[in-house]
Description:
Layout: H1 2-15, H2 17-46, E1 57-66, E2 70-73, H3 80-84, E3 90-106, E4 109-118, H4 122-125, E5 130-132, H5 137-140, E6 144-148, H6 149-156, E7 165-168, E8 172-180, E9 193-196, H7 197-206, E10 222-228, H8 234-241, E11 246-247, E12 251-259, E13 270-271, H9 280-307, H10 309-321, H11 326-358, H12 370-395, H13 400-403, H14 418-454, E14 459-463, H15 470-477, E15 482-487, E16 498-504, E17 507-515, H16 519-524, E18 530-531, E19 545-549, H17 550-556, E20 567-570, E21 573-581, E22 592-595, E23 603-608, H18 613-627, E24 635-637, H19 638-642, H20 649-679, H21 681-689, H22 694-731, H23 740-762, H24 770-774
Parallel strand pairs: 2-13, 4-9, 6-8, 17-22, 19-21
Antiparallel strand pairs: 1-2, 1-10, 1-12, 3-4, 3-7, 3-10, 5-8, 6-9, 7-8, 11-12, 14-23, 14-24, 15-23, 16-17, 16-20, 18-21, 19-22, 20-21
Helix pairs in contact: 1-11, 2-9, 2-11, 2-12, 2-20, 9-12, 9-14, 9-20, 11-12, 14-20, 14-22, 14-23, 20-23, 22-23
Amino acid sequence: MVRNNLKIAIRILWKNKLFSLVNVLSLSLSMAVGVILFTGLKATYDTDQFHPKLNQIVRILTHETNVEEQTKWATAPLPLAPQLKSISFVEETVKVRLAGKYNLQTDGGDVPIDIKFSEPSFFDVFGFKLLSGNAQSLTDNPTSLFLTEKTAEKIFGSANALGQTVRFESLGTYTVEGIIQDPPLETHLPIEAMLSINAAEMLEQKGTIPTSSHNWGDFKSSAIYARLKSEDNLEQFNTTLQNYTRKLDKSSLQFLAQPLEAITPRNNDIKNDSIAVGTWEGIKIQLFLILALTLLSAFNYISLTLARAFSRAKEVGIRKTIGATRGQIIGQFLTESTLISLFALMFTMPCVEILTHYIPEMDTAFSYDTILILGLLTYAVITGLVAGALPSWLLSAFQPIQVLRKMKNIKLFQSIAVYKALIVVQFSVTIMLMILVVIVADYDRKHNAIINSTVSPHVLTLDLKGENYKILQNEISQLSQVETTLATNWFYEPMKLGKSSVTLKDKTLEMYNVSIDPKTIETEGISLKSGQNFPENMPQNMEQYVLMNEAAAKLLESESETLVGQTLLLDSAYVQVIGIMPNEIIGETRPLLYRYLPNEIATLTIKIKPNTELEVTEAVQSLWENHFPEKTANLYNLKEYHYPAKISGEMEFLGGLALIVMIIAGLGILGIASYSVETRVKELGIRKVLGASNKELVWAVTKNFSILILIAGLIGVPAGMFCGDLIRQDIGSSLVDLSFTNVVIGFGLVAIFGLLTVLTQTIRAAHVEPVNVLKAE
């Protein structure tokens, strides 16, 4: 039976080439996105699977209990590690200290590198492999540095990294003595650079990093792993860990073991585990997207199959007359849909390559293995079954006496017009997404235009790296090429934000704040909405005044003018509101406080004369080296570094998704339009004999599709405006414009695309020759 179904399916698909091609293309496009998402899910599943004896490796969790709450941490105190070695069924332990990113100083500027401190047993417990070097050097030489292949290439390019000496800001100088092979799969413990755990203790003695090596209470930046003799020891190990409970001044610590396999997907109840790969919420979203795209492409198959229902009706009637059951008919149609889906899988991988190159949000890597191939085949079969389920059920319901006696008595699709409803659904989604694309693109355009008109290209920004800037600022200000220097964390847009508690008349709110140089307002010619600028000679040891923007004033008082002169509680000190700033010049309307906090200044903003950037850069770097030789001067062009003209991530994602959905919808309406012309060819011949013009013939076929697109607009336009309003609320900017123009452009693009797609088929109506189509009548 299966063999016969396959033969019949192949013959029917070959006979209806356009029908088959449209379905293969639409299915392959949506399946390509599904494959990318499916590969992401597989990468999550494969996380850490390259470690030998994986089921014997555990991570020690810390369960902290204090008066207020109980918290579970993915980290553990380092003093616990040597005590675990005495447990008989523990084969090996390894300490990993998470240092975070430090700047590696190079001739081309600082390169931030994630640092981890560990010990030789790291390479015994885990599956990370050394391409060169000896793990023992982590114990013998505290200045040894191990880099991964990718990190070594980022720093040294194609040159040999071994033996090279590098300097990390604040940490000192180290020599590359080993190269770690990049792991073949994802890991919850990504490595860029590794230093000796002994080096961490030396840095602790210097006061460079916190002293946690022998401190039970400082456990939030270190991890402990253990390899058990058998996975059966896990329960016994957790019981033994209860003996190591530790009481601190304000809390108590208990410990438990988490199997390495259980780390991914990440458990949100476990703190300090942000680098773990994937979450259950993310997996659910990916599964939903796979299902949504599969259903969207299945709509094409459903609509085309139902549109061709009457041409298959006699086939169903004859097969039932000679004894075929309804189940056998369903099996035939499901075989056809599954076969098309498997054909589509052949075209899916080229689509995947295109998507991963041109849509950055879908960037992924592939490693084909048996599980992935079987998964893709299963996905293709399920897609085919989903696409063919409804058509096979409805078409198999035809009765022989109906289809073999009088076809016009069949009213299965004439009233409900299932395929029309499916077209409306597809185009409604497409219109909604396209309106969002237009709105976000308009926001990007306006945002970049404002920046281009307000931010001068002759401004440099210098990262102070926590250093005292007063003397340096004075020396830079004396350079002949420099017009102004401002010590600030703000220049049209925050470079570094803080958060403050604001209390006014029993109303307490959390608001962002930024430290601003009092000279900024006068220098940049900013007009306050009300009030005045900070007074000259502001005291640096006590905060007395604060500015706020209109958005912050609106939250605290309905009329912003009434706030000027009032005193509010800012964190733990009372300050006076001295003035109201306009909402940020680039259009962002989030509430913001402007404070003068000299000790928190992170940046010097340097306004220079045109065509002097190179000279000023060299001079500033020289001055910086005189004052802070241990650190590299990070000096950038403000406009190029902080405000580069770029397309937002939202634009890239929405644009890519809208394009995919529009192509799928276009393929669907293409097939329906083609079939509509074929089934109405006699009607069109008669119209032409009666004197209808070519334009009238084309319009006769096109108008129904025009009505469907208009109906889709009635659904998609409000949906697009609603989602656009959500984006506006999320971004908090008045530049997100839900104007009539943007809505019309979004709807118009989809409508024009749909109509042009339809016209590629319906224009054939003008070429109908009555003598050919009516000669048999």
